[in-house]
Amino acid sequence: MFELARLKVRRFRGFVDEEEFVFDQPVVLLYGENHRGKSSTLNALEWCLFGDQCFGAKTGIRERVDWEIPNRYVPGDVTVTAEFNGPDGRYTIRRDHVAAGRRGAGTVTVVLPDETKLHGDEAQHQLYQLFRSSFQEFMTTVYQHQEAIRSILTQEPRQRNEAIDRLLGLSEYRELLGGIDKAQLEKTEKALEGKFENLRQRAEQSIRTYNNLIGEEKSKAIAAGIPEQDLNQQEALRRAKEIGDAVERLAQDLGLADFQLTIPQAYDEIAEFREWVKTEADQLWAKAPDVVKQENLAREQQDLASPKGNYESARAAVTKAQGERDELVREHGDETALITIADKQRGKTKELEQRIRQTNDRANLVGEAIQYLKTASLGGAVQRCPLCGTEVPDLLAHLESEWEERIKKEVEQLDDQRKTHKSELERVESLTKELKALETNLDATRAAADQSVQEIGAALGRDIGKEEDPGALVNARLKQIASELEAVRQAIEEKRPRIGALHDELAQLRTIDEIVRYERKRAAVERIWETTEFAELSALRDQTSELVEDVRAIRDSIAAVSREEAQERVAAAGAAVDGYFCRLANHPAIPGLLMGVTEDTRSGLNSYVFKSKDGTDPTPILSQGDLNCLALSLFLGLAEAMGETQPFAFMMLDDPTQSLGSEMKLQLVSVLEGIGDRRRLIISTADTEFKDLLMANITKSKALYNFLDWTEQGGPQITRPS
Amino acid sequence: MGYKETVRGKLNECEQRAAERHALWRSIEDSFENEGAEGMANELKRQMAHLEKKFDTALANLASML
Amino acid sequence: MKVSTFQHLVRIREKFGPGLFGKIAQKLLALALCDTGFSYVVERGVQGVDVDATSSKGDKYTLEVKTTEGDSIYLSKENLDALRDRAADGYVPVIAALRLQMFEDWLFAKIPLSRVRRGSIPLARLRAYHIIKLEALVCPAFEAVVNQHFTGVLARGERYLAELLAQRRQGDT
Fold first, then answer.
1. C8 contacts in A (CB within 8 Å)?
2. How would you class A615 by CB atoms within 10 Å of its CB: exposed for 0-12, middle for 13-18, buried for 19 or more?
């Protein structure tokens, strides 16, 4: 067994300058308030012995996940040196961590009693040879961490089970199981199976769809008179050949000697053949001489109809214009006669206007005389002529009477006559204008008629002589066209049923082709399971299942092994654990404690059960202090079970009195007194009461290190009173 | 005996697929030792992802036949 | 299996229901084993493991036969006990599972009994243990049996197959 003699710590976590601890007494106390470096002192020994095994997730200690080794405030190289007294002498283990190096592991040097120095892997190997202890085992039976106690102090069974697993040194199994669960392979497998199932369902749906389509097409086919036994590939090929032969015959009958086609020999050629025949048959028909002739005649007929119509319209217009002009001449005379009449009227009008002027002059004179006489008489009657003085009784009245009865009347009569002549003149002028317009219209209609004759000539493709009747010529040609059309129509009508029959045959072939096509597609989907791709997919499903099952088997093995080890350790330490618990807790309602391990059926992890010796379940009545006692009992019990196989002759307890009452502390001191007979004790505590109890009641010699203070730049301030 | 040996011993109890499981356990051990539980989980995920990729390709090939 | 075979099985299931269908499938499987050269084929309707059969090479198999439309099968405590009993007699315990869906087929899985608990087992899990050679031998024979006897089964159900198996047994002895 190895006793710890000395420990030197430099730059490790909160430490700055090198601090030395001498373990020259059976009991060494590290005492001081929290955060002074007490736990770090114990951790330093851990790190010295185990390097990077003592931190990270796999320790199972949450606080160790992001653990820092070097002092974060005063950077520098870390060195921890531990000296052990072994069976053969002094062993020195030194671990260094260079500030700029990879976090954690450090380099280890071992100096043997004979001064042999070992470095690196050799040193590491030597460490294992010497102590044969893993970090887990060290935690289980040598160094009781305060984190381990804290984690037991929970009523949540899952967390407590995890904490006890850690206490029993089974954290690695837990970590392994956790990692396997995290990979979620079963979930991925399920997703892949889901994808396969989707594909399978799609294929099934595809087949159902094809079945429906085939059913529908078959019904249509049977309704169209195609026997069900004909709905196959062979029949499709046979019909295709028949259609091809019919097309060839038709081409010959239509006079197309250079027509060629290829009869399909394999089913896959039918679709293309169908499309080709459909297009070719229509083109064949379009190219048939009769059809061409029919189209040409119809075009010519259409081309003649328009000029014929124009000609007839033009002729009618000429006739009408001629008639209108002739009627006017008949009624009113020709242009010469009208001019003569107009001239006459013009002369008469002029003459009358002259006479009217003359009459007007006289009228003016008389009028003036009347005015004179009126003004001269001033209301009396005038008796003498103002010119010659002759006596004229009632001259004014006389003149007024003359004016009214003769002059005025005469003017009026002349004016009436003038108006009459003028009116007649206007009428004749109007007629002349009208006549001119009719003449112009007649000329225009004649020109249009000439134009339409030329159009007829163009349509007939010949000149039309003056002696010829264009209308008759057109009608003759139209009659001829009608006759030829009728002949061609009859010829075509005789052949048309063959094209119709061809289209019908094609339609039936299309129906059969569709059915066969769907059946082939359906068969292709149905045969999917026979393909190499399906076999490949099946193989991959197998491999996935094998991987998941293998991992499951490994997981089960890990869980089983973890449980077996837990059972072994619990069995080995059971009596001791019970003894320690009864002494420490001294619970009035728990006469003794039995501990067992079962499997959590949901997770496969270890589940620890506690029973009181009287058969009851003690967990509901366990206080925090009782749980601490349980944690301590487990540790002490396991350490005791290891007995002499334990390589280390010391035990470290870090803050063991969490939640313990005074009585329990006293019991713990009593227990430690007994352990002190077998192992040296290193105890770290901030609990003054506990420290005082230890100092007063432990009969072994004690050394006390006081952790007075801690500063960033100075590290822990430690004294050791003599 | 470390956890590696104990688990290996347990795997030997089942004859079927013993060789494959030992090989798989070795890869789990290695990744756990080097990268912890997280690394081990990633290694298993990687092995599964490899199969998944081939699976998806094969599935796509079959899907194209529908 | 072929789609046509699957459709035959679906019709049988529709006519007789899932319970009887399982028994019919079991008898059809037993006939298929006979046709592929297995001897001493014992098919049990009630107690014990469903089918025992000895291959031409002398390998003795004991099969627990399960049919399902879903993606898992259920093994009862009795199923497992029966398999263990026969395993103790030197038989290789096999779970024969048929998923009645298109493109699926029989799965013969030699899953270690120590790794099985009573309850639902996903078919995907059985794949890790499936005996490919046995499937390659028996599945085509099963298809042939279904196609050959479909009409008879549809007409007379389980009884028809029971008579056939009895005739085969007489032929064996």
1. none
2. exposed
pLDDT of residue A377: 64
List, for residues A99-132, the tens digit of each pLDDT value. Answer: 665 455 678 999 999 999 999 888 888 888 888 7
Answer whether B17 sits within 8 Å of C110, measured CB to CB: no
- The average confidence (pLDDT) of chain A is 89
**Number of helices (H), then strands (E), in chain C:** 5, 7
Q: Report which of A551, A477, A490 is spatially closest to residue A300, judged by C-alpha positions.
A: A477
pLDDT tops 80 at residue A179? yes
CATH classification code of A1-142+646-722: 3.40.50.300
Does the pTM surpass 0.80? The reply is no
Pick the CATH number of C3-172 from 3.30.2310.20, 3.40.1350.10, 2.40.10.10, 3.10.20.30: 3.40.1350.10
Chain B residues contacting C, CB < 8 Å? 13-17
Chain C closest-CA separation from residue B50 CA (Å): 18
Q: Residue A518 phi/psi, 5° resolution?
A: -65, -40
Residue C114 in tokens: 């120590």
Measured between beta carbons, which residues in chain C are less than 8 angstroms from residue B13?
114
Among chain B residues, the shortest Cα distance to A180 is held by B41
Alpha helices in A118-184 (DSSP H): 120-131, 135-141, 146-152, 157-167, 171-183
Task: Return the structure tokens found at A235.
Answer: 């029949």
Q: Does C84 touch chain A (CB under 8 A)?
A: no
pLDDT of residue A653: 94
For residue range A617-654, list pLDDT tens digits in order: 887 888 888 888 888 888 888 888 877 677 899 999 99
Task: Write down the domain spans for chain A.
Answer: 1-142+646-722, 160-183+559-645, 206-287+473-526, 320-468
Exposed e or buried b for every residue in A140-161, given b needs 16+ CB within 10 A?
bbbbbbbbbbbbbbeeeeeebb
A40/A598 Cα distance (integer angstroms): 36
Confidence of residue A478 (pLDDT cuts 50, 70, 90): very high
Task: Please indicate if any CB of chain A lies within 8 Å of the CB of B47.
Answer: yes
